[in-house]
Structures are given as C-alpha cells and as structure tokens.
Design a protein that fits this description.
It comes from Peptoniphilus lacrimalis 315-B. This is DUF3160 domain-containing protein. By secondary structure, the protein is an alpha+beta fold. The protein has two domains: about 80-140 and about 400-710, no CATH class; about 150-380, no CATH class. The protein contains 23 helices and 17 strands. It has helices at about 1-15, 80-85, 90-100, 115-120, 130-175, 180-200, 215-230, 255-270, 285-295, 300-315, 325-335, 350-360, 380-390, 405-410, 415-425, 435-445, 455-465, 485-505, 530-550, 555-580, 585-595, 595-610, 690-695, and strands at about 25, 35, 100-110, 125-130, 230-235, 240, 275, 275, 280, 370-375, 525, 630-635, 645-650, 655-665, 665-675, 680-685, 710. A six-stranded mixed β-sheet has the order 11-4-15-14-3-17, with helices on both faces. Helix 5 runs parallel beside helix 22 (about 595-610). The radius of gyration is 28 Å and the shape is elongated. The termini are far apart.
C-alpha cells in the first residue's frame, strides 16, 4: 500500500495539471517549479490504469476412453507413417507401452510450428502441444517489448538524457557547497556518458559542448570502460564496477539502436548510489538523488517521459523496490520544494531523516547490501524475490548454497516433480538451514492472494508455468498419467521460464550472494488437453490486449494477430473438452488441426515482422531462431566447488519432437508435436543468444538429467 501511495502521489504531483478535469498547474515565478493544490490529489487521471478482464472456466466431465496398446504396436492405426518398413527400436516400444509417449532429442526445430508443417508434408498426425501455444506468447512478449523499446522508448530516453545533461551542467556550475558539488559532478559524468552511448562515439555533440575538459575526459573514460566489458574502477563512483553487465544480450543484439537502448538502461540502473557506506549515511548520494529528482520535477516534458517509460515498464515487467525519482519526489516535495538554492540541499538533519526512512524499506533482492538510488532502478520480479531467499548470502565464510536452480522456482509454485528433485538434490542438502527456509517460503507462495498474478504481464506470463502441473484424474489419457509426463511438463515449464528470464534480462534485478507426397494413412489429430492452461492463456491474452490497447502500444496488424491468437486458443479449448468428454472431433476441426502449423506461423510472423509474408522471408535470421539464454546470477565463493565469478545461465533450446499415442473414435493413433527444452549451466562469461546457439550446435550442453527417462536420441543411443 505504501508503494502504491508513493507512486500515486508522484503521478499526481506531475500530472494533475495535464487533465482537463484538473486545475492548472501554477508556476512559481521564482523557481519555475510546479506547485499543486492539495485538493487535486484525488483527481489524477491515471488511477486504476491496469484493467482486469474476465476469466473463463469450463466445467468438464472427464470420461476419456483409453485403449491398450498391443505389444507389437500393431493396433496403432497410422504407425506406418512413422516406421514404414523399418524396424521399431526397442526403446521406442518400451516407452510407448509404458508411458504412451517419448521424446526424440536427436535434432531440434528452429520454431515449434515447423513440426506441424513437416507433419503436414509427411502425412503425420499433429499432436498439438501446450508448448507450442505458450511459446507463441513468448514470441509476442519479446517482440512487443523490442518494438516498444526501439520505436518509442529510445527516442524518449535520448531526449531525456539530453535535458538531464543540460540541467546537470547547470547544477554543477551553481554548486558551491563541496558535497553538493561532488554530487552534481557524479550526475554530470553519468549523463555525459549517456551522450557517448547514444552517439556511439567520443565526439562532443551539440548537447555537451558546455561540458568542461575534466568532465569530458572522465565520461569518455567511463564509456571506454563500458566498451571493455571488464571489471574496472568507475569514473562516476570511484568504486569497483563490473562492466561485463554492459555486454549486450537478449533481443538487444538485433540492431544498433537496441544496443544503445540496452547500454543506456544499464547506465541508469547499474550506477547505484547507496544510501549508506559501511553503515554510515552517504550524504552526497542522497543529495545527488535529490538533484536528479528536482530536475525531473521541474520540467513537465521530462516528467512525462519518465513516467511514460517507467510506468509502462512497471506494467510489462514489475515495479522496483529500490529508490528512484518516484520515491525521492516525496522527500523533495516535503523538504525542498520551494528551495531555489541547490546548496541548501546539504541539510544534515533533513538528509538524516530521508536516509533513516529509506533504510526502513523492505528489500527482498540483495537487501543485505542496503538501499540505493538509481535513475531507473531494475525491477523486482516475484521469482527473483523468492530466489534471493534460496541462496546463502555468506558473510561468515564461503556460501553453502551459492546459486538457485530452476526446479526450486517450479517447486514453489506447486510442481510436485520439481519438489521431489529438490529434496533429492545432493548439493542443496549441504545447507542445513535450507529445509526450513524452503518450507516457509513455499507456505508464503501458497497463500498469495487469488489475484496476485493478475497485476502485470510478467506475473501473468509467469503464471502459465503453474498450469503445467495440472492433472485430470484417472479417466484422462494414459500418457498424462505417469511420472515421465510430469517430468516432460516440468521441462516445458522450465523452458518457458528461461524464455521469460531472457525477455526481461535488462530489467530484472539479479539475485546476489556475496508440403509433398506422403503415405496412404488416416490423419487424426489430437490436442494436448490441458484445459486449465488454455483458460489461463485466454485470460492473459485478453488482459494483455486490453491494457496494451489502452496504452496505444498495439497497431492494427498486432491487434489482428492478437484476435487470431485468441481465436486459436479458444478452438483448442473446445477440442480439449471434446477429447476429455470422449466426443468426436468434427471433420472441420480435424482439418484445422492438420494445417495448424501454417496458422501458428502467420501469428508468429505478425508478432515478429508483419511485413514478411513467410517465415523464411524474415530478414534477420536470428528472428527465426528460438534458442535464447539469460544469466541469472554470479557464482560467489562457495562450498559446492563451483568456480567463483562464473555466471549461472538458463536457456530455452530448440524444440524436440514428442511422439504420443492416443485413442480417438475407438482407434489408436500416434501424433507428433513439439516440446520446449531447457538448459541450466555455468559459464565463464555472460552469454548472448548467438553464443548459446553455437554451444547447442556444437553439442556442448546437455538438458537436465531428469529428462533422460523419457527423452533420448534414437540415432546416437540406439544406433538406429
């Protein structure tokens, strides 16, 4: 509630005068700053900006009729489409008879929908997977974020940096007090460095002609540090700084403008001005934060840019828990609003009040380091908050739990298979405090309010992973009633989680510790009947569409793609209901499932590049490659034998093909569909997507060991 109040007050402070229904801002002739009457505080036009939508819930009477598979698989009607005149490997028979499915990991597709298109060409039946649907949402989320960043946010932040530099120059010139002067100097170097990032050079521009030689040299050296990607001393703070954070990763490698956007955001988020140094208030850092906040408050254009960018990111990702201009505006308004002399900011009594208040903030990510101010501090995603509690931060020797694993996050949200793997993990067992910490956290997660995941897109995206744990009883298809299916679902959820970490790598504050000729066979398709997942996806799609449309962030082509995606998802719900209730799919439904690869491809292209007419026409080949990676934390000194300084990486690999046997219309069929793959490993350096893809192509990485019980390479493992 306190955070909401702070954000609301700040919004009111700078936006009340923009509404037709609000009183006009009154300009103080002496300071030029905006003054707002107290009675206007209830009239902000931006209250309740997140719109909720209805959720659908189908009441399904599960009565699926299973048919036993014969030992020789001869009663699988369309088997010859897969093994015509070829011996069926014993391991394939074993898995079909035991589990009703298997995954062939001998190769991977660039995109999941390609499997369906290959099936169409080879006259194979489609098994439509939840993986292919949730992956489409990842494609939408990542590409929508990319377009907003490149087309909207970067131009806005260029203007923002230029104006902030102008004000920083003025502050530096007017500062007489030594502490204020030093604080103004740090701000000036920071925004001057921003100009170098924007210009991608070390030449003075029209924006920084007034910067003196000393500041110019310090900023140019800072920019050189950024380009070095090494650990060096910061020219802004004078402290050690890990510049490898500026290595461009995620979708930001796709264009020069995105690279600039990435590094400019890193500049704003990774320059952390800590409120305390060794338990002593850092007056200069508090003053510097007030100077930057003052300059945003006094300029309506800057205020609007800042809230447009940060407010949108709060919805797309999450809010930050660290101090930003949003928080500091409250203090500036309270103590210094009518002060025109910046030297009066060095008021020790007032600064102590501010520092003490900031020190009380509940910090869940790297809280042991204390609170800090940043221009645009990184966000605090829910899973990062949980993960912080699952590592031993050390302090009294090497960490006994230096990293967290994806299975821990999945266990927290109710995945029973993940829970078993956590309990059996030999490394995790080394930390004697872990069982109690984990159980307390699990209890906390289980008791979250019902609408917790409906606050923003990150939480909605994350909530899809919960739905991979759904079960439908002993009258559901056989392939859904075994431990290997649960493991497959866990791997799929982890792959989606890795994609989410990739999509938000710039904004998430990391956890810290110290067609052709075919066969004459009947094609009978089947939809993976995880109805609850499709229902959750329906909510998320409508929630996303409603709120992005409200913010004018979707064009007509994207809206049409959204409608097509929503329609496809509703169609899969209806198919799933028919299957579980043992009803017959219509010929029209079966035909639509046969050509679903092309339908998914069209939705994919609409999200990635609406100007392309086909998948292969995408100009950037990386847009056709689904494999993505994200570093989620750095390895501290530890008792596990992990190399200190390495990076914990999680990756979504290429989709593998899953073969599933199902009963439909009184017969058995085999269908093929794509499943997501997940990789978790340590790397000496932070990896970008291209480097990760190279490792996959060179077979340097392995999927999680628990997948070996259902996933295998029929060529390498069987000599087939």
């Amino acid at each position: 509630m306190k955070k909401l109040l702070v954000s609301f007050l700040f919004i009111v402070l700078i936006f009340s005068g923009c509404s037709k229904n609000n009183k006009q801002m009154q300009k103080d002739s002496a300071t030029g700053e905006s003054q707002i009457a107290e009675e206007n505080m209830e009239e902000s036009p931006l209250k309740n900006t997140v719109k909720d939508v209805d959720e659908i819930h189908r009441d399904v009477k599960v009565n699926y009729e299973n048919i036993d598979v014969k030992e020789d698989l001869s009663n699988i009607t369309n088997l010859k489409a897969y093994y015509d005149e070829m011996a069926i490997p014993d391991k394939v028979k074993e898995h079909i008879l035991k589990d009703g499915f298997y995954v062939d990991n001998s190769y991977g597709s660039e995109e999941p929908f390609q499997t369906y298109e290959y099936n169409e060409y080879l006259s194979m039946s489609n098994f439509v997977t939840t993986d292919s649907m949730v992956h489409l949402y990842h494609v939408f989320y990542d590409n929508t974020l990319r377009k907003i960043e490149e087309n909207k946010f970067l131009p806005m932040l260029k203007s923002f940096n230029s104006k902030m530099l102008e004000y920083a120059i003025k502050d530096y010139e007017e500062a007489k007090d030594d502490t204020v002067k030093e604080a103004a100097k740090k701000n000036l170097i920071l925004f001057e460095t921003g100009e170098f990032i924007i210009g991608d050079n070390l030449i003075k521009s029209d924006n920084n002609l007034r910067v003196d030689e000393e500041i110019f040299n310090l900023a140019s050296n800072e920019y050189k540090n950024i380009r070095s990607e090494k650990s060096l001393v910061s020219n802004i703070s004078g402290e050690d700084f890990d510049y490898s954070q500026f290595k461009v990763r995620g979708h930001y490698t796709k264009s020069e403008n995105l690279k600039k956007y990435f590094q400019l955001n890193m500049l704003y988020s990774q320059n952390k001005f800590y409120i305390k140094d060794e338990n002593q208030l850092n007056y200069g850092n508090i003053i510097g934060s007030l100077l930057a906040t003052k300059n945003i408050l006094k300029d309506e254009e800057l205020s609007k840019i800042y809230l447009d960018v940060v407010g949108t990111l709060d919805f797309l990702v999450e809010e930050s828990e660290k101090a930003s201009p949003v928080k500091m505006a409250i203090y500036y308004k309270k103590y210094f609003d009518k002060t025109s002399d910046i030297n009066k900011l060095n008021d020790k009594k007032v600064l102590e009040k501010i520092g003490e208040d900031l020190d009380k903030d509940k910090l869940e990510i790297a809280g042991f380091k204390g609170n800090y101010f940043a221009i645009i501090p990184q966000k605090a995603p829910i899973d990062n908050k949980w993960a912080q509690k699952l590592v031993d931060v050390g302090g009294n020797g090497p960490s006994q739990k230096p990293i967290y694993k994806g299975i821990e996050i999945m266990a927290l949200i109710g995945n029973g298979t993940a829970q078993k793997l956590v309990e059996e993990d030999k490394d995790i067992k080394k930390w004697d405090k872990y069982p109690k910490i984990f159980q307390n956290l699990k209890d906390e997660v289980e008791n979250l309010p019902e609408n917790f995941y409906n606050k923003n897109l990150y939480r909605g995206y994350f909530s899809l992973m919960k739905e991979f744990s759904n079960t439908y009883g002993n009258k559901s298809p056989k392939f859904m009633q075994n431990e290997n299916w649960n493991k497959k679902n866990l791997s799929s959820a982890l792959g989606l989680w890795a994609a989410l970490k990739h999509d938000t790598i710039l904004y998430s504050e990391v956890v810290s510790a110290e067609m052709g000729g075919g066969y004459d066979v009947e094609i009978c398709n089947f939809v993976e009947p995880n109805i609850k997942l499709y229902e959750r996806l329906d909510y998320l799609l409508n929630f996303t569409k409603e709120n992005l449309t409200d913010r004018n962030l979707l064009d007509d082509k994207q809206l049409k793609a959204f409608d097509n995606f929503i329609d496809l998802n509703k169609f899969l719900i209806e198919c799933s209901v028919s299957e579980l209730e043992n009803s017959t799919l219509s010929k029209e439904a079966n035909d639509r499932l046969t050509y679903i690869g092309g339908e998914m491809e069209n939705i994919f292209i609409s999200f990635v590049d609406p100007n392309a007419k086909a998948f292969w026409e995408l100009e950037d080949s990386s847009q056709r490659d689904m494999a993505v990676v994200a570093d989620i934390m750095q390895v501290p000194a530890n008792t596990w034998g992990l190399k200190e300084g390495d990076f914990q990486e999680v990756g979504l690999g290429y989709s593998n093909d899953m073969y599933v046997v199902y009963a439909l219309n009184g017969k058995l069929y085999m269908g093929r569909g794509p499943v997501l793959t997940y990789y978790e490993f340590q790397s000496e350096n932070r990896l970008n997507d291209d480097e990760f893809r190279g490792k996959l192509r060179n077979n340097e990485l392995k999927q999680e060991a628990f997948t070996n019980t259902y996933s295998f390479n029929i060529y390498n493992d069987l000599g087939y």
